[in-house]
Design a protein that fits this description.
There is one protein chain. This protein is an alpha+beta fold. The chain has one domain: Thiol Ester Dehydrase, Chain A (Roll), CATH 3.10.129.10. Helix content is about 15%, strand content about 40%. It has two helices and six strands; from the N terminus they run H-E-E-H-E-E-E-E. Strands 1-2-4-5-6-3 form a six-stranded antiparallel β-sheet, with helices on one face. The chain is globular, with a radius of gyration of 15 Å. It starts with 5 loop residues before the first helix and ends in a 5-residue tail after the last strand.
Length: about 150
């Protein structure tokens, strides 16, 4: 059962199609841990060029999906989140373990290493059917911005 559906996610994150890579949030321990789901479909825009005839979700987009789930964990704590935008400041220890293809359900688990009002550090693990596809430590800052509805 979803804790946040796609509508609720868009009330927290500034990301929109085609760059929103999380469909639902299924687990949440505030300020500690969060799990999101991305249903990977054949219609994803990136499959047209990555790779024609052999569609594979780019590893960097898996990291982006993890970062978006982590941003939900951080932004949901802020009352003025509609005025904030999360920006990457670093990616460490990134590893890509196996391909993600159309039809996969990508599980995105992010654990907070540090959550502040401005600076965040989290560890993310993406997996399909219990097998790790990508992992990384992600650093970000929460900056000022204005989102458009």
């Amino acid at each position: 059962m979803a804790i946040y559906d796609s509508i609720q996610i868009q009330q927290i994150l500034p990301h929109r199609f085609p760059f929103l890579f999380v469909d639902t949030i299924v687990e949440l321990e505030p300020r500690v841990r969060i799990v999101g789901i991305k249903q990977v479909t054949a219609g994803e825009h990136f499959f047209a060029g990555h790779f024609p005839g052999v569609p594979v979700m780019p590893g960097v987009l898996q990291i982006e999906a993890l970062a978006q789930v982590g941003a939900i964990l951080a932004l949901r704590e802020l009352e003025d989140r509609s005025e904030k935008i999360p920006f990457f400041t670093g990616i460490e220890k990134a590893r890509f373990r196996r391909p993600v293809v159309p039809g996969d359900t990508l599980r995105l688990e992010v654990t907070a290493m540090r959550i502040g009002s401005r600076v965040q550090k989290m560890r993310g693990v993406a997996s399909v059917d219990g097998k790790v596809t990508a992992e990384a430590e992600i650093m970000s800052i929460i900056g000022q911005g204005k989102t458009k509805e």
